[in-house]
């Protein structure tokens, strides 16, 4: 079976999605940017800065059956019932996708969505929301699913993921310094205090952000803990100290210090923030899966998330490649079109090879996840994390060089 093969039904869905991206999402990008450009400073992170065109795209995506396509299986009955009640009292949102896809099949659709910066959010398939929803779907309690998962599935809120830290090499989660201190209050119930600094926290400054998943380390040194609990801080392995907690947003003690930029772009109104967590008070209901289960949770969301990111990057690179080709037929230098120059032909050929390599490597990884699970495919998951960004960024770089030739 070819890595690119699809069933007739899914081929039809892909063709419809391509039409939606081409005729709705890509033309809307200009309107989106013009709306954001009206605002500066802190105004870029206010509700009025969210472009209205996004709601229109979401409504159309729902009507066409492109909503929540990332979901791997049926939703819990409690979530479906709660959504039906909301549908009867509010606007109707079909939170279940038209069909359930394998990682390979969804990866092919991710490439299509990656062609427009607006498409993933329009289809409720954008990061970090998809990863957060997958965590809540797989590991969340019924209460957590009803309170946090359902609004995300309906597209009523956005979310954030806080892991990376400014003061340590936090690409290795064993180095995290953010602490979740456990204590017993006067009534005998368990409470937690969250302290630390995070940055590159995607979505934390979005005015629609309703919750954040925070990766932290357990701390049992508070005097209210018994001696056995206090000893756990020292005796637990480096892999057994991480814990994931849900922080409702906005929340007392959560301070977004600044938006972080790349080449001057802040990616408002979603963006990436430096966040200080200062004595954030949380209850047991905020802990996902249990204390010390953070690595297990992170690994469970890692494989599919890598597929989504890489295939969207392939889609973006493919669009840049097409723009590069158009430019070679429009611009002349030294009396010849760009495509007639050997150096330009070489750039075009190298880009085509890079795109196809990135595409097939990622889909091969996705197929292996489908067969063996994320753990069985961990070598290829690690491979695409390194290789695909390099391949696709080379394509984008060449496209910039060709398009700026004067």
Helix content: 40-55%
Strand content: 15-25%
Tally of extended strands? 9
Please summarize the sheet with the most strands: 7 strands, mixed
3D shape: globular
Count the helices. How many? 11
Structural class: alpha+beta
Taking the alpha carbons of the first and last residues, their distance comes to: 46 Å
The H/E string reads HHHHHHHEEEEHEEEHEEHH
The radius of gyration is: 23 Å
Mean pLDDT: 94
Uncertain residue ranges: none
Question: How does the SSE layout of this entry go?
Answer:
Layout: H1 8-37, H2 53-64, H3 77-89, H4 103-113, H5 119-122, H6 129-139, H7 142-153, E1 158-162, E2 179-184, E3 190-202, E4 209-219, H8 227-235, E5 242-248, E6 254-259, E7 272-283, H9 294-330, E8 332-333, E9 336-337, H10 342-376, H11 378-403
Parallel strand pairs: 1-4, 2-4
Antiparallel strand pairs: 2-3, 3-7, 4-5, 6-7, 8-9
Helix pairs in contact: 1-2, 1-4, 3-7, 4-9, 4-10, 6-7, 6-9, 9-10, 9-11, 10-11
Short description:
The protein has helices spanning 8-37, 53-64, 77-89, 103-113, 119-122, 129-139, 142-153, 227-235, 294-330, 342-376, 378-403; strands at residues 158-162, 179-184, 190-202, 209-219, 242-248, 254-259, 272-283, 332-333, 336-337.
């Amino acid at each position: 079976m070819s890595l690119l093969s699809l069933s007739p039904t899914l081929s039809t869905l892909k063709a419809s999605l391509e039409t939606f991206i081409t005729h709705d999402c890509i033309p809307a990008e200009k309107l989106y940017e013009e709306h954001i450009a009206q605002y500066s400073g802190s105004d870029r992170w206010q509700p009025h800065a969210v472009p209205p065109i996004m709601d229109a795209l979401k409504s159309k995506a729902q009507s066409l059956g492109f909503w929540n396509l990332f979901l791997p299986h049926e939703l819990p009955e409690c979530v479906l019932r709660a959504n039906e009640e909301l549908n009867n009292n509010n606007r109707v949102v079909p939170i279940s996708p038209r069909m359930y896809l394998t990682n390979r099949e969804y990866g092919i659709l991710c490439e299509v969505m990656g062609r427009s910066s607006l498409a993933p959010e329009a289809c409720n398939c954008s990061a970090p929301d998809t990863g957060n929803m997958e965590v809540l779907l797989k590991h969340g309690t019924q209460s957590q699913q009803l309170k946090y998962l359902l609004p995300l599935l309906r597209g009523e809120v956005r979310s954030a993921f806080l892991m990376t830290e400014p003061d340590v090499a936090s690409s290795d989660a064993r180095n995290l310094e953010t602490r979740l201190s456990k204590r017993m209050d006067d009534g005998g119930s368990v409470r937690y205090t969250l302290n630390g600094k995070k940055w590159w926290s995607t979505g934390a400054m979005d005015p629609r952000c309703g919750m954040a998943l925070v990766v932290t380390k357990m701390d049992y040194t508070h005097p209210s803990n018994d001696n056995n609990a206090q000893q756990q801080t020292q005796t637990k392995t480096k892999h057994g100290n991480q814990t994931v907690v849900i922080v409702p947003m906005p929340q007392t003690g959560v301070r977004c210090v600044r938006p972080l930029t790349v080449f001057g772009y802040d990616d408002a109104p979603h963006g990436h923030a430096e966040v200080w967590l200062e004595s954030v008070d949380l209850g047991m209901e905020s802990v996902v899966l249990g204390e010390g289960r953070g690595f297990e949770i992170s690994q469970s969301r890692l494989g599919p998330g890598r597929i989504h990111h890489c295939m969207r990057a392939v889609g973006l690179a493919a669009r840049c490649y097409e723009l590069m080709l158009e430019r070679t037929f429009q611009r002349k230098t030294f009396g010849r079109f760009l495509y007639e120059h050997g150096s330009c032909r070489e750039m075009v050929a190298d880009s085509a090879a890079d795109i196809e390599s990135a595409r097939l490597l990622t889909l091969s990884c996705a197929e292996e996840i489908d067969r063996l699970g994320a753990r069985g495919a961990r070598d290829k998951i690690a491979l695409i994390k390194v290789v695909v960004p390099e391949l696709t960024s080379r394509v984008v770089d060449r496209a910039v060089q060709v398009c700026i030739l004067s």
